Fold this sequence. Notes:
Elements lengths: L1 H18 L10 H24 L7 H12 L14 H8 L4 H20 L2 H19 L4 H14 L1 H11 L7 H8 L17 H12 L2 H22 L8 E5 L5 H13 L3 E3 L25 H7 L9 H17 L1 H5 L1 E10 L17 H21 L8 E6 L7 H11 L4 H15 L2 E8 L6 E5 L9 E2 L2 E3 L9 E4 L2 E16 L2 E11 L2 E6 L6 H11 L9 E7 L2 H10 L7 H4 L4 E6 L18 E2 L22 E5 L5 E8 L4 E6 L2 E2 L8 H4 L1
Parallel strand pairs: 1-2, 1-3, 3-4, 7-15
Antiparallel strand pairs: 5-6, 5-17, 6-10, 8-9, 9-13, 10-11, 11-12, 13-14, 14-16, 17-18, 18-19
Amino acid sequence: MEIELIKERFMLAIGRVKEIPTENMIQEPLKEYFNQMATFILSINDLSDKIKSGCLERYSFFELQNLNHRLYEDIYKDAYETSYANPTYATKMLGKELAPYLSALYMELRGLIRYVFEGRLEEMTITVELFLEIYRLCVEQMDVKEIKEAMYYHISDYCDVTIPYRVREGLDPSLSFVYDIVMKSDLSDVGYLYKYGEYIGENELQIAKYLNQLNEETIDLMANTYIDGYCKGFELAGIDLSKKPYVEVRFSLGFERVIKKAIIRLEKLGHKVICFLPATALINKRPGIPIGCVGTSANSQCDFDHKYDLGLFFDSALKERKLSVYRSAYETYKEFAAGYAGPAVLETFGEEGFDPINKEEAVTFSKKQQKLFASMSGESTRITYEYVNGEERSFTIISFPVPSIGEKFEEIFNETIRLNTLDYGKYREIQEKLIDALDKCTKVVVKGKGHNKTDITVNLVNLANPLRESKFENCLADVNIPLGEVFTSPRLTGTNGLLHVGQVYIHGIQFKDLEIEVKDGRSVSYTCKNFDNEEENQNLIRSAILGNYEVLPMGEFAIGTNTVAYQMAKKYQIFDKLEILIAEKTGPHFAFGDTCYSNSEERRVYNPDGKEIVAKDNEISILRKEDPEKAYFGCHTDITLPYDELDSICGITEDGNTIKLIENGRFILPGTEELNEALN
Length: 680
């Protein structure tokens, strides 16, 4: 009965939208805006009819490609300059007061593309109804305050629809839209990519075609490396994976041939697989970080322009409303949450670099909203871990290049497969040598060379029983593939200095001359040279690195040992394109935010040599025992200092002696010299 009522509401809404282009109830340029939006909505309705009738199943590859192009052409490349999605153009045409709301509405309407492909009629209905309400207010010449209020209450009132669905699709394998495309499509015909409704660019098409050229043995190797790492993570953590029926598989579109093999393997192990696309509704989006099965953005600047649209409405009441519904949703799906094992993630690197432009017309968070949003993120993470036991979950991440990395793509791809399957035993022994030396130290000093100004002292925890305990984890090919790092949670007090990186790629943004000053383990000041305006630089760091917090603790210090990855990056000149997963293995790195053990500190973790890792907490995370709200941030951002900017890493023992680990960017600790072969 309920679905019939929704159908009736949708048809009534579409009937009203059809009238808009014929009306003269509103003046230009608003008339053009609403006519464009009405035309778009009607095209989505036509598409809905074609999907339901099976018409799309008979489309040729070129017909599907043209359809995808039409759906995204208004925000693609030069077309974006005269699109109402562009805050600058919208402001020019609609005025400074009204433009932010109508441009944000434009982006909400674009969510209809996802909804129509997934058949989510309720979300389609409420989105079109919002459009009609804003149209009515503009016809009646209501002021901006009333338009803002209408959009605010739409977002708040329909949290009961948008948030539970988002929670459910991350837990319930019966929501199988993505799964069905992967498992039921003829992957030899790359036209399957257009079934998602997502923007499909050359990267997605070319990687799918390339994988179709590879033999079955290579595809099996990729899939098995990926899933073996996932299973190994549970084994090393002493967690029984067989008791967790639901595994999330997260991947980049175009890799379906590998993912299908991975899913088959997981299902043979007795698991059901969860796959989902990034969030569509504004209330669910995580600024700048799409979570789910993703493809290349149709326009990264458009995404950047709208990442803080929630700032038009965000206040403490909306925060509490979201958290309340979020908790209720987890309570509803708590059985799925209890069986959730964790994500197996296949990422990509090599996308074209994005140098963002800060537009004064784009919406930003106020300082108060930044704090509110950071607080909400932290609280939502705590709610998640009330239902998903952090002590019983694990993950894995693996990464492969995409064709836009350059003309040597195939060579780099083959090198990456080799990189992902390096000798586990050899690295285990070398990294044990590093850890044995570091366990004798009370602090580590890292210094940059040349133009790099890094000079930072990292304070380490104490060991009560050095024969049975260790400060650093020996990270091999399990949760993070490729292998190649030793890491710890440093003591914050006494961790001081300057971290400087000439160029680093973080969350899709290329940072230039990034500097973070650390005092007692906290990021007390920071800057970069992306913009001429210092405030804009600090805001970029705050949003992309610090999770909208003013200050974050250093949650991790690590020494990367994968010199083969470094050599690959140097050979092909792709340092600026490496995913952090690989980049973090190519030098020492520092992470700001939560520790690597957040929400699972009580789980006992051991290195391959049998020693227990005891450096899992710091002075902030330990507050979880008395005040969890102060212990976690829901953020962990790695920043790597590459070998070519590195002068030295030295350990300082309790009696003041120096143990040299790296000098002039080369490993000199006895037993680690083999790592220099790739560097030389």
